[in-house]
Amino acid sequence: MPDLPVDLSGMVKPPFNYTGCKFKLLPQLIPLFDYERDSFVDLFTGGGSVWCNLAPYYDRVIANDIIGDLVDIQRLLLSGDGIVAETQALCVEKTDKAGYHALRDDYNQRPSAAKLWALMLCCNNNMMRFNAARRFNQTFGRRSWNASTTEKVARYTSHIRSLESRIAHMREDFEAVPIPPGSMVYVDPPYSNTEAGYNSYWKKNDDVRLFAHLQHLTLEGHAIAVSGVREHNGKRSPLIDMLEQAGWHVSKLEADYNVVSKVGLKQTDEVVLTNYNVACLVTHRPTTPAAMNGGRRSHGSAPTRLTAGPPPFLPKGQVLSSRRSPGFAHFKGSAT
User: Fold this and answer.
1) What is the Cα–Cα distance from 277 to 2, expressed in whole angstroms?
2) How many domains does the chain have?
3) Mean pLDDT, contiguous 10-residue spans, the chain (336 residues)
4) I need a surface site. Which of 110, 167, 181, 283 has the fewest CB within 10 A?
5) Is residue 295 part of a domain?
6) DSSP class of residue 193?
């Protein structure tokens, strides 16, 4: 992967922690996307650090996740401050362990976005965790809403609300998300070969199901980038193996998730696989988001486009017959 640094100081970090958050990887991720597409789809949005920083450069953004309350936090922050006041009122004091357990029990019986956010702010490592029954079971963390949270919320909401008209949130299974023609699709699913607090939402056959869906989306003409861990502590990812065998292009990332690992230091091989050749996609890329468009884009203005190189190369000899067509782009050649 070419050395194309991005300055994190110009990025916006969502006001909640999330296992596997891609914020620190944005300098490596940003150069890998196709900015000639009109729409950006974050199929497994998680904490939302990717879509919220990519939104200025696309006409439409869809942020989806099957953990509905997590998506609703982001959706409600986009539309107003009601959830901020509600969450602040729900957060317990740093010494109130019993209050935290009561809040956790209440959430598991009557879930809401504000309750989940309050739990995330007060729990151990600020990292949500669910058991096999999808009940929140993270332990008390002696944490609460603080001045840093207020500052992060202010910066985050100022950024995303300036882009509200182009952002849509969904809480669907990945197969049910309607994807606009010719989109840039980013896929960061639960990693079945790692431990994470949301893996209870990922079934045994979901790697196979997602692989089939991605191959289908490829044939429909979408540009796709998939994050994953090829190998973690000796365990390989079925999804990554299938994509590599199908001919997808691999970019290696430098990542370190040991801070949230359950058991000591682990060896993690994080990669991004694309159904296009990144080296042939773009010939010139900026080094900071501000360099893309001189800062935030105003409502109604066109997204900044990067200088395009040759059309992307796709797996197994598929060739793009029309880079920009009125509907789906079409591919010639055999399907993988």
Assistant:
1) 13
2) 2
3) 56 86 90 95 95 95 96 97 98 98 98 97 92 91 96 97 97 97 96 58 85 97 93 84 96 69 60 93 47 39 36 37 28 28
4) 110
5) yes
6) T
